[in-house]
Amino acid sequence: MKNFYPVYKKEFATYFASPIAYVVMAVFLTFSGFWFYSQTISFYLTSMQQAGNPNAQLNLTDEVVRNIIWLMSFFTIFVVPGLTMRLYSEEKKLGTMELLFTYPIKDIEVVLGKGLACFTVYAIMLAFTLLYPALLIMFGEPEIGPIITGYVGMLLLGFAFIMLGGFLSSLTENQIVAYILGMGILMLLWVLRYFGDFFTSRVGQVFGHISTSEYVDNFSKGQFDTKDLIFFANFAIFSIFLTLRSLESKKWRGR
Amino acid sequence: MRLHSKILGLAGLVLIVLGGVLWVVRFQFDLYVSITTIAGLFLLLFTLFVNFAAFRDFIGRRSTRYGTGSIVTIVLVLAIIVFVEAISAKHHVRMDMTRNKRYSLSEQTVKILKGLNKDVEALAFYSKGNAQRDTFERVLKQYRYYSPHFRYTMIDPEMDPTVTKEHGVKFYGTTIVKAEGRDVKIEEGTEEKLTNGILRVLRSERKTVYILKGHGEAAVDDEREGGYSKAKDGVQNESYEVKELVLLREEEVPRDAAAVIVNGPKVLPSDHELKLLSNYIGRGGSVLFMIDPDAAPGIEAFLIKYGVILRRDIVVDPMSRMFGADFRMPVVTEYARHPITENFGVASFFPVARSVNVDPAKASKGVKVNVLTATGPKSWAETNLRELKLGRAEFKAGEDTMGPVPMAAVATIGEDQPQDPSKTQRNPVGKMVVFGDSDFANNSYLSASGNRDLFLNSVRWLAGEEDFIAIRPRSSESTPLFLKASQARLIFILPVVVLPVVVLTVGVTIISRRKKNR
Fold first, then answer.
1. Scanning every residue of chain B, which has its alpha carbon at the shortest distance from the alpha carbon of A52?
2. B510 and A16: CB-CB below 8 Å?
3. Alpha-carbon distances, residue B217 vs B220, B232, B263, B265, B345 (angstroms)
4. For B95, which residue in chain A has the nearest alpha carbon?
5. Could you tell me the pLDDT band of residue B177, with boundaries at 50, 70 and 90?
6. Where are the beta strands (DSSP E) in B305-454?
7. Which residues of A touch B27 (CB under 8 A)?
8. Is B332 helix (H, G, I), strand (E, B) or coil?
9. Quick check: B24 contacting A, CB < 8 Å?
10. pTM
């Protein structure tokens, strides 16, 4: 695994050399930030309204923390493909893909190197959003447990989505195509469980099981389940596997 | 390959895929599915046959070999992953990181489920559009997680009207719990109702709680503020029948009585009724007395035999002002160690109450009596009722007794009698709980703080169901948010403006520096 690190370093540096990473991050932070602001203020207004009412059920964690975790996870559907679309497509376009294949680097090192570099960018982006729970802690009493599970969940989710995005990027030279494919598939997986209602209960169950929003529900509520961990791990592993196959096929197809 | 055979071959593939989809949708390999799939297969084979030579070359090509190999490995890996997922779905470990574990079932429910040794099935009638369907299904899934004897099915009343009618379900959101041929209907999809439903259905005999009538007590069917309909619902949910009891007409308290509730009589019950009650207690019966201040004069003589002393007073508690209430609404925060108040952490409120004192010396033989709850130290029992009516109350040493003031008493009768070796049944032990107020359990005040639990736990202890005493499942803590104007501004500026701008600035700096260095 010696060559993993140079690949990782180079990919990471490339991210910061181009405007795309900054734009994606800024857009994500703006939308999430605005959502955080609106949820928090609306909760504050409700708190004021219900101040005299002893029966009011106002829980900062349930209302605000859960919603921001949920929404940020949903945003990743749009943001992650933006980060992953250039992972392989650019190389193919520039023709540096063949060059990559002539180096004595194993495919897995390439896949992991690039994937983890992208993941690091994603993690940095998430780290910025820690501002939101920090503000909540400063001014209110959110529960720490759900915040932790929320962020761990988002990291797992991001990792899995990034690996999928990488695979899709390896299929085409065109970054736009890679983005649209990525967004389309992630969106489909997200809403899949709502379609389960149209089919028999067995099929509905399967749909629910592979639908990513099902797991976000859990960790946004402060539940940490081995089921969730294994799902995202499987998701990532399968995507990595597909990427390896895809890269390999380029080699013997000579394209 | 010739064009039309290519098309045919493609058509064949499409038909096979269609067959697969149809199979999934209809979930059985029926006529349509078989026809489509077989037709597809035929077309495919036909194309193959006609173009055999070209096909052979295709297989021979290296790219095909690699490609097929790839597909095979991919399918293999997918199969392994699906297998792992299937196992993980069944055997998983869940950690609830919320502060009061509110998304997990309560310990009581878990205990009951783990001890379940009979098959219980729940049929939940929720239509697909119902917002509570998913939430309740999650709850049901957790029940299933803890007990293999528990099964559930979600039924959509709109898709299955016959089954719905069969079970007599009229309202959506109803759940039927079945076990051992009996069934119980639950109208609310909550953990509390479901667990109680399970307990109810497993109970083989129905116990009845009687409520005394005829002395101005609040009626159980009265849904107005002073009525007792909510209390009745609460008791029924604990799996008892609730019936009114006009003791005047009876010769004895009914034999199926698990407990008798005397909720705030305004006049004294007749001697005949009191005698029946005392007989009932003597043979192991349980009575809950809730006597309001200045009501049922004369009841003191009856209660003193059990060591319970009622005085002509009203408890005054300055602390209740803190809760926004009148100072005649004492706040009870002290609880004795007793099954009724085990794990009690919340205060209760008694709107206008008298003190309930105990004096074991005055009790008859075989009676063990104790204080159950008391108010805080700053309260007192005011004996000058005239002054109180005028809105003035002052503690007068010597006349009034300073707090903590006892507000409820609990007594057992016959507990320390030696067991008669000739009898196989245990000696009957009578039970009594006395509160100095009946309003705390009426429709207006039952849901205030710990009142409901205090009332229901008392009923349960009296009716003999100690094992199932439970604190209601946790709901979320109230953590409202209050912001100053400056803080609210900060909440807007930092996340929405500052953060993205910082990122962009860093980006611009790094990129322009690189350009400069080139």
1. B324
2. yes
3. 9, 13, 6, 5, 30
4. A224
5. confident
6. 308-310, 314-316, 331-335, 348-349, 356-358, 367-375, 380-382, 401-402, 406-413, 430-435
7. 200, 202-203
8. strand
9. yes
10. 0.61
